[in-house]
Write a structure and sequence with these properties.
This protein has helices spanning 4-26, 34-49, 56-84, 87-101, 104-119, 123-130, 143-190, 202-226, 229-239, 248-259, 287-320; strands at residues 262-264, 267-269, 272-274, 278-280. By secondary structure, the protein is mainly alpha-helical. It has one domain. It has a two-stranded antiparallel ribbon with strand order 1-4. Strands 2-3 form a two-stranded antiparallel sheet. Helix 6 (123-130) packs parallel to helix 7 and helix 7 (143-190) packs across helix 8 (202-226). It is globular and about 55 Å long. Pathway: Cofactor biosynthesis; adenosylcobalamin biosynthesis. It is found in: Cell membrane.
Length: 321
């Protein structure tokens, strides 16, 4: 057996462990975050090219061109690096790229920033903190509404900012995780059903749905396995199809069921009250459900790493045999 085979087989696991260690130790970069820079570039490009939002054909074409213009050069560079480099240098570069794409520590910090004032009875502070992570009208939320919004954010962002990044790295390496992060960012910026973005943002939204389809269901499965399994499965099967997002539905329903917490329902937004389907079990959302969602994501990451380790060990065994 070639000496390089063990390193090749264990490289994905090593990269994931290093990236998560960087995330736990350093969190998200406070300055010069590439995703922030990418978002600013996307904003500037959208202002320049989205000049005819009421014309469906021109707006769709402008959105398609914008997605290509923003993603193609970065994706090409990621592919070139993955092909031309190898060994320890490539592992380190991949680890940094994955670290910049995931946000496990940041997710927990944002969630706890809401849960702690809720426990202390400081509703105003909890509203202020939840307004940083959701688009709801925080001033109109009561204690339960704040807790539900934060719990939903932990579950949904666990899929988008943690598990989807791990999935795309394991499936397609550094190019996969970078492309997913770019597409997910563009969807978060442009994927609105407003007059300005209805057509322009459609390509980004559809690409994000496509890239998120498998990771979302793996995330839902993860939540189900680590929580109240029977309830999570029933919620996933019966409630998820009622949700307007094909990927958020399974994640939110399975997560709410796993925690046996009641989520969804009417929620106030700046544009008015949005009536959403009810998800989950019977218990009201609280600071405990926010903490529970954080723990569910963290345990899920450990489960995924364990599966990668076992899979790698089996591959090694097959090589030796």
């Amino acid at each position: 057996m070639s000496p390089g085979i063990p390193v090749l087989l264990f490289a994905p696991l090593i990269v994931c462990v290093l990236a998560l260690a960087l995330d736990v130790r350093l969190g998200e970069p406070r300055r010069w975050h590439p995703v922030v820079g990418f978002g600013r570039l996307a904003t500037a490009l959208e202002k320049r090219l989205n000049t005819a939002p009421k014309d469906p054909f021109r707006s769709l074409l402008a959105g398609l061109f914008s997605v290509f213009l923003l993603t193609a050069p970065v994706l090409g560079l990621a592919i070139w690096v993955s092909v031309e480099l190898d060994g320890v240098l490539l592992i380190l570069i991949q680890a940094v790229a994955l670290w910049l794409a995931i946000s496990l520590r940041g997710l927990a910090e944002h969630g706890r920033a809401v849960a702690e004032p809720l426990r202390d009875g400081d509703l105003e502070k909890a509203r202020d903190q939840v307004s940083r992570i959701v688009s709801r009208k925080a001033s109109a939320l009561d204690e339960q509404g704040v807790a539900a919004a934060a719990t939903e954010s932990m579950l949904e962002n666990g899929a988008d900012a943690v598990f989807a990044s791990l999935f795309w790295f394991l499936v397609a390496g550094m190019p996969g995780v970078i492309l997913h992060r770019m597409v997910n960012t563009l969807d978060a910026m442009w994927g609105y059903r407003t007059p300005r973005f209805l057509y322009f943002g459609r390509m980004a939204a559809r690409l994000d749905d496509l890239m998120g389809w498998v990771p979302a269901r793996l995330t839902a499965l993860t939540y189900m396995l680590l929580g109240q399994r029977e309830l999570a499965w029933r919620c996933w099967q019966k409630q998820a199809p009622q949700w307007d997002s094909p990927n958020a539905g399974p994640v939110m329903a399975a997560g709410a069921g796993a925690l046996n917490v009641r989520l969804g329902g009417p929620s106030p937004y700046p544009s008015g009250v949005k009536h959403r389907p009810v998800l989950g079990g019977t218990q009201h959302a609280s600071s405990d459900s926010v903490d529970g969602a954080i723990v569910l994501v963290q345990r899920g990451v450990r489960l995924w790493l364990g599966i990668v380790l076992v899979t790698t060990a089996l591959l090694m065994l097959m090589v030796y045999l």
